[in-house]
Amino acid sequence: MDQNMDISGSKEFSAEIEENYNREEELKAFDDSKAGVRGLIDAGVAKVPKIFIRPPDELAEEFDRNKSDLQIPIIDVSAIEGSDERAKIVNEVRIASEEWGFFQVVNHGIPLNVLDEMIDGVRMFHEQDSEIKKSLYDRTKRVRFETNYDLYKSKFANWRDTLTIYMLHSDQTDPDEIPSVCRSTKELFPYTRTEIWETSEYIAELRIFTQKPEVTV
User: Where would I find the Non-haem dioxygenase N-terminal domain in this sequence (predicted)?
Assistant: First the structure.
Protein backbone atom coordinates (compact mmCIF):
# COMPACT_ATOMS: atom_id res chain seq x y z
CA MET A 1 0.00 0.00 0.00
CA ASP A 2 1.17 3.51 -0.74
CA GLN A 3 2.65 5.23 2.31
CA ASN A 4 0.65 8.38 1.62
CA MET A 5 -2.88 8.59 2.91
CA ASP A 6 -5.46 8.01 0.20
CA ILE A 7 -8.76 9.75 0.85
CA SER A 8 -9.82 9.86 -2.76
CA GLY A 9 -12.47 7.21 -2.27
CA SER A 10 -10.60 4.00 -1.61
CA LYS A 11 -12.05 1.82 1.13
CA GLU A 12 -8.89 -0.22 1.41
CA PHE A 13 -7.07 2.08 3.81
CA SER A 14 -5.78 0.10 6.76
CA ALA A 15 -4.79 1.29 10.20
CA GLU A 16 -2.67 -1.79 10.82
CA ILE A 17 0.98 -1.30 11.73
CA GLU A 18 3.29 -1.66 8.76
CA GLU A 19 7.03 -1.89 8.64
CA ASN A 20 7.25 0.98 6.17
CA TYR A 21 4.78 3.18 8.04
CA ASN A 22 5.88 6.82 8.06
CA ARG A 23 3.88 8.96 10.46
CA GLU A 24 5.20 12.28 9.17
CA GLU A 25 4.26 11.43 5.60
CA GLU A 26 0.79 10.34 6.63
CA LEU A 27 0.25 13.49 8.68
CA LYS A 28 1.34 15.64 5.75
CA ALA A 29 -0.87 13.74 3.32
CA PHE A 30 -3.84 14.20 5.62
CA ASP A 31 -3.07 17.89 6.12
CA ASP A 32 -2.44 18.55 2.44
CA SER A 33 -5.80 17.06 1.53
CA LYS A 34 -7.47 20.01 3.34
CA ALA A 35 -10.51 17.77 3.69
CA GLY A 36 -10.31 17.06 7.41
CA VAL A 37 -11.87 14.15 9.23
CA ARG A 38 -15.17 14.64 7.44
CA GLY A 39 -13.25 14.22 4.19
CA LEU A 40 -12.11 10.78 5.31
CA ILE A 41 -15.68 9.78 6.05
CA ASP A 42 -16.99 11.15 2.76
CA ALA A 43 -14.22 9.31 0.92
CA GLY A 44 -15.37 6.02 2.41
CA VAL A 45 -12.32 5.17 4.50
CA ALA A 46 -13.20 1.86 6.14
CA LYS A 47 -10.73 1.89 9.04
CA VAL A 48 -9.48 4.63 11.31
CA PRO A 49 -6.04 5.80 10.07
CA LYS A 50 -3.16 5.01 12.37
CA ILE A 51 -2.41 8.67 13.13
CA PHE A 52 -5.65 8.75 15.17
CA ILE A 53 -5.17 5.51 17.10
CA ARG A 54 -4.15 5.67 20.75
CA PRO A 55 -2.86 2.83 22.96
CA PRO A 56 -5.64 0.92 24.78
CA ASP A 57 -4.13 1.61 28.21
CA GLU A 58 -4.12 5.36 27.54
CA LEU A 59 -7.75 5.27 26.43
CA ALA A 60 -8.71 3.27 29.51
CA GLU A 61 -7.02 5.82 31.76
CA GLU A 62 -8.86 8.70 30.11
CA PHE A 63 -12.15 6.82 30.29
CA ASP A 64 -11.72 6.37 34.04
CA ARG A 65 -10.84 10.03 34.41
CA ASN A 66 -13.94 11.10 32.49
CA LYS A 67 -16.15 9.08 34.84
CA SER A 68 -15.28 11.40 37.72
CA ASP A 69 -17.73 13.88 39.20
CA LEU A 70 -15.72 16.87 38.02
CA GLN A 71 -17.79 19.66 36.50
CA ILE A 72 -16.49 22.66 34.59
CA PRO A 73 -17.09 26.03 36.26
CA ILE A 74 -20.42 27.68 35.46
CA ILE A 75 -20.49 31.45 35.86
CA ASP A 76 -23.76 33.37 36.09
CA VAL A 77 -23.27 36.91 34.77
CA SER A 78 -26.88 38.08 35.16
CA ALA A 79 -25.99 40.37 38.07
CA ILE A 80 -22.72 41.70 36.66
CA GLU A 81 -23.93 45.30 36.68
CA GLY A 82 -24.30 45.25 40.44
CA SER A 83 -21.21 46.55 42.23
CA ASP A 84 -21.36 43.85 44.90
CA GLU A 85 -21.75 40.98 42.45
CA ARG A 86 -19.20 42.27 39.95
CA ALA A 87 -16.20 41.58 42.19
CA LYS A 88 -17.57 38.11 42.94
CA ILE A 89 -18.01 37.28 39.25
CA VAL A 90 -14.57 38.62 38.38
CA ASN A 91 -13.08 36.38 41.06
CA GLU A 92 -14.97 33.37 39.69
CA VAL A 93 -13.57 34.10 36.22
CA ARG A 94 -10.07 34.39 37.66
CA ILE A 95 -10.29 31.07 39.50
CA ALA A 96 -11.80 29.27 36.50
CA SER A 97 -9.14 30.67 34.17
CA GLU A 98 -6.27 29.74 36.47
CA GLU A 99 -7.46 26.29 37.53
CA TRP A 100 -9.39 25.11 34.45
CA GLY A 101 -8.50 27.31 31.50
CA PHE A 102 -12.15 27.59 30.45
CA PHE A 103 -15.64 28.05 31.87
CA GLN A 104 -19.30 28.16 30.88
CA VAL A 105 -21.20 31.43 31.00
CA VAL A 106 -24.94 31.42 31.70
CA ASN A 107 -27.55 34.19 31.72
CA HIS A 108 -25.46 36.13 29.22
CA GLY A 109 -28.39 37.62 27.34
CA ILE A 110 -27.94 35.75 24.05
CA PRO A 111 -31.34 34.25 23.12
CA LEU A 112 -31.60 30.48 22.73
CA ASN A 113 -32.74 30.77 19.11
CA VAL A 114 -29.54 32.66 18.28
CA LEU A 115 -27.40 29.91 19.84
CA ASP A 116 -29.41 27.25 18.00
CA GLU A 117 -28.88 29.04 14.69
CA MET A 118 -25.15 29.23 15.35
CA ILE A 119 -24.98 25.48 15.99
CA ASP A 120 -27.04 24.79 12.87
CA GLY A 121 -24.75 27.03 10.83
CA VAL A 122 -21.60 25.23 11.99
CA ARG A 123 -23.20 21.85 11.31
CA MET A 124 -24.21 22.89 7.80
CA PHE A 125 -20.70 24.18 7.15
CA HIS A 126 -19.11 20.84 8.01
CA GLU A 127 -21.68 18.98 5.90
CA GLN A 128 -20.68 20.89 2.78
CA ASP A 129 -18.59 19.33 0.04
CA SER A 130 -14.88 19.25 0.89
CA GLU A 131 -14.00 21.35 -2.16
CA ILE A 132 -16.07 24.23 -0.78
CA LYS A 133 -14.38 24.13 2.63
CA LYS A 134 -10.82 23.92 1.31
CA SER A 135 -10.65 27.66 0.61
CA LEU A 136 -10.86 28.29 4.36
CA TYR A 137 -8.42 25.57 5.41
CA ASP A 138 -5.78 27.33 7.50
CA ARG A 139 -4.42 27.59 11.04
CA THR A 140 -3.76 31.31 11.30
CA LYS A 141 -6.69 33.24 9.80
CA ARG A 142 -9.43 34.69 11.98
CA VAL A 143 -12.04 32.77 10.00
CA ARG A 144 -10.74 29.31 9.23
CA PHE A 145 -11.49 25.63 8.81
CA GLU A 146 -8.94 23.30 10.34
CA THR A 147 -8.44 19.87 11.76
CA ASN A 148 -6.17 19.41 14.77
CA TYR A 149 -4.45 22.75 15.34
CA ASP A 150 -1.57 20.79 16.92
CA LEU A 151 -1.51 18.08 14.26
CA TYR A 152 2.28 17.95 13.98
CA LYS A 153 2.94 18.31 17.72
CA SER A 154 0.50 15.97 19.45
CA LYS A 155 1.24 12.26 19.85
CA PHE A 156 -2.08 11.31 18.27
CA ALA A 157 -4.50 13.23 16.09
CA ASN A 158 -8.03 13.87 17.33
CA TRP A 159 -11.03 12.74 15.30
CA ARG A 160 -12.49 16.21 14.82
CA ASP A 161 -12.68 19.22 12.53
CA THR A 162 -13.02 22.81 13.68
CA LEU A 163 -14.53 25.97 12.26
CA THR A 164 -13.07 29.03 13.98
CA ILE A 165 -14.65 32.47 13.69
CA TYR A 166 -12.65 34.90 15.80
CA MET A 167 -15.12 37.40 17.22
CA LEU A 168 -13.44 38.64 20.37
CA HIS A 169 -13.71 42.22 19.12
CA SER A 170 -16.26 43.52 16.65
CA ASP A 171 -13.69 45.35 14.54
CA GLN A 172 -11.39 42.37 14.03
CA THR A 173 -13.55 40.15 11.83
CA ASP A 174 -15.17 41.21 8.58
CA PRO A 175 -18.71 39.74 8.53
CA ASP A 176 -18.28 39.04 4.82
CA GLU A 177 -15.51 36.57 5.68
CA ILE A 178 -17.96 34.38 7.58
CA PRO A 179 -19.16 31.47 5.39
CA SER A 180 -22.60 32.27 4.01
CA VAL A 181 -23.99 28.95 5.22
CA CYS A 182 -23.13 29.97 8.80
CA ARG A 183 -25.00 33.23 8.68
CA SER A 184 -28.45 33.48 10.19
CA THR A 185 -31.44 34.72 8.28
CA LYS A 186 -31.11 38.19 6.84
CA GLU A 187 -33.22 39.62 9.64
CA LEU A 188 -31.44 37.80 12.47
CA PHE A 189 -27.80 38.00 11.36
CA PRO A 190 -27.14 41.65 12.34
CA TYR A 191 -28.69 40.95 15.73
CA THR A 192 -26.58 37.82 16.12
CA ARG A 193 -23.38 39.70 15.39
CA THR A 194 -24.24 42.45 17.86
CA GLU A 195 -25.11 40.07 20.69
CA ILE A 196 -22.10 37.82 20.19
CA TRP A 197 -19.65 40.68 19.87
CA GLU A 198 -21.02 42.45 22.92
CA THR A 199 -20.81 39.27 24.98
CA SER A 200 -17.32 38.32 23.78
CA GLU A 201 -16.00 41.81 24.48
CA TYR A 202 -17.68 41.66 27.85
CA ILE A 203 -15.94 38.38 28.75
CA ALA A 204 -12.64 39.79 27.51
CA GLU A 205 -13.14 42.75 29.82
CA LEU A 206 -13.76 40.42 32.76
CA ARG A 207 -10.54 38.55 32.01
CA ILE A 208 -8.63 41.83 31.99
CA PHE A 209 -10.11 42.63 35.38
CA THR A 210 -8.88 39.30 36.75
CA GLN A 211 -5.35 40.32 35.79
CA LYS A 212 -5.75 43.78 37.36
CA PRO A 213 -7.71 43.32 40.60
CA GLU A 214 -7.42 46.99 41.49
CA VAL A 215 -9.80 48.00 38.69
CA THR A 216 -12.62 45.93 40.19
CA VAL A 217 -12.76 47.96 43.37
Answer: 72-171
Burial class (CB in 10 A: 0-12, 13-18, 19+), 62: exposed
Tens of pLDDT, residue by residue over 77-124, are 887 776 678 778 888 888 888 888 888 888 887 788 878 888 888 999
- pTM reported for the whole predicted model: 0.68
Q: pLDDT tens digits for 64-78?
A: 766 666 788 999 988
CATH number of the domain residue 184 falls in? 2.60.120.330
Residues contacting residue 157 through CB under 8 Å, at least 6 positions apart: 27, 30, 51, 52, 147, 148, 151
Q: Do 78 and 162 fall into the same domain?
A: no
Query: 40 lies in which domain range?
Result: 9-66+105-206
Residue 99 lies in a domain: yes
φ and ψ at 15, to 5 degrees? -95, 10
